[in-house]
Design brief:
There is one protein chain. The chain is α/β, with parallel strands linked by helices. Helix content is 43%, strand content 18%. A five-stranded parallel β-sheet has the order 3-2-4-1-5, sandwiched between helices. Strand 2, helix 2 and strand 3 form a beta-alpha-beta unit. Helix 7 packs antiparallel against helix 8, helix 10 packs antiparallel against helix 11 and helix 11 crosses helix 12. It starts with 5 loop residues before the first strand and ends in a 5-residue tail after the last helix.
C-alpha cells in the first residue's frame, strides 16, 4: 500500500541495527525519496535492510535550500522520509526547518518513532525520570560552558547533555566546578553498541573512572546529572516524615513511597526519594 504524500520523520538505530522498528523499515521501503543527514551513512543502513531508494543530502549547511525542494516534491504528490545519522531526527540533528516548512505549507508530517539516545540513557540511569531537561551539546569552550552551566545550577529536574569524546574530561571537570563534586551523575557511552558502558556515581567518582581508562574517553556520550534539591525541602524532613517513609517502604516500592509521602507532607518528592535511599542504607 502506497504512503500518503507528506513527510515521515523516521527514527533509526543509535547503534544496534536490531533496534529499528518494523514500521520504520516499511516506511523507508515505501517512500519516494529519503532526505538523509549523510547519504553515505544512510546508504549503509539501507543496504543492510535491502532497500534501494533515491536520497537527497540534508544537513545543517543546506537545510533551508533543500527544504524548498522537498516541499515541492511533497506538493507534487511524493512521500519523503527524513532520517539523521542515528536516532530521532531533530534531536540535536537537522530537520527543524524542513518540518516547519512542510507544516507551514499545509502538508502531512508524521512521526515514525524509535531509538533516541536521550530517552535510552535516561531510562537506564537510575536518576529521576518523571521530569527532565535536555540541553543538547554544551558549549565547546570552557569559559562559555561554565557560564552556561551556571544558569542551570538551581534546576530541579534531571539534566541531560550530549558530549563529544575530545571534550568529555573537560566537561566533567566543569560540571564539578559548577555543581560540586558530590552531585550524582551518570554517563552513558556508546549506547546499544558492543562497548556500551554506564558509569554512575558522584561527579568526582565518575571523573576518576573516566580518567583512569582511555577507553571511557572514546565514543558518543550522554551525560545525566541529578537536579538540584531545594534547600527548603532539605530542611523540612522531620522524624515524623522518617517514620512515615519507613512504614511505607515496608509495603511499597521506593518511588511510590516517596510519592505518597510527598502528597501527605508537602515535601518535594525528589528530596523524599533521596531520604528514602538514606533510610535504606543506599546513601550516606
Amino acid at each position: 500500500m502506497a504512503l500518503q504524500s507528506g513527510l515521515y520523520v523516521v527514527a533509526t538505530p543509535i547503534g544496534n541495527l536490531g533496534d529499528i522498528t518494523a514500521r520504520a523499515i516499511d516506511t523507508l521501503a515505501k517512500v519516494d525519496v529519503i532526505a538523509a543527514e549523510d547519504t553515505r551513512h544512510t546508504g549503509r543502513l539501507l543496504q543492510h535492510l535491502a532497500i534501494s531508494k533515491p536520497m537527497i543530502s540534508l544537513h545543517e549547511h543546506n537545510e533551508r535550500e533543500k527544504s524548498e525542494l522537498l516541499v515541492g516534491r511533497i506538493a507534487s504528490g511524493q512521500s519523503v522520509a527524513l532520517v539523521s545519522d542515528a536516532g530521532t531526527p531533530l534531536i540535536s540533528d537537522p530537520g527543524y526547518h524542513l518540518v516547519s516548512a512542510v507544516r507551514e505549507a499545509g502538508f502531512l508530517v508524521s512521526p515514525v518513532p524509535g531509538a533516541c539516545a536521550v530517552v535510552a540513557a535516561l531510562s537506564a540511569s537510575g536518576l529521576p525520570s518523571d521530569k527532565f531537561v535536555f540541553e543538547g551539546f554544551l558549549p565547546s569552550r570552557s569559559a562559555a560552558r561554565r557560564a552556561y552551566l551556571g544558569t542551570l545550577i538551581s534546576e530541579p529536574r534531571t539534566l541531560v547533555f550530549y558530549e563529544s569524546p575530545h571534550r568529555i574530561v573537560e566537561s566533567i571537570e566543569d560540571l564539578a566546578f559548577i555543581f560540586g563534586g558530590e552531585r550524582q551523575m551518570v554517563i552513558g557511552r556508546e549506547l546499544t553498541k558492543a562497548f556500551e558502558t554506564m558509569l554512575c556515581g558522584t561527579i568526582l567518582q565518575v571523573k576518576e573512572r573516566v580518567c583512569a581508562d582511555d577507553n571511557q574517553q572514546k565514543g558518543e556520550f550522554v551525560i545525566l546529572l541529578r537536579g538540584a534539591v531545594p534547600a527548603v525541602a532539605q530542611e523540612s524532613v522531620t522524624p515524623e516524615c522518617d517514620r512515615l517513609l519507613r512504614a511505607l517502604l515496608k509495603e511499597v516500592p521506593i518511588k511510590l513511597a516517596s510519592k505518597i509521602a510527598a502528597d501527605v507532607t508537602g515535601i518535594g518528592k525528589n528530596q523524599l526519594y533521596e531520604r528514602a535511599l538514606v533510610l535504606q542504607g543506599k546513601r550516606d
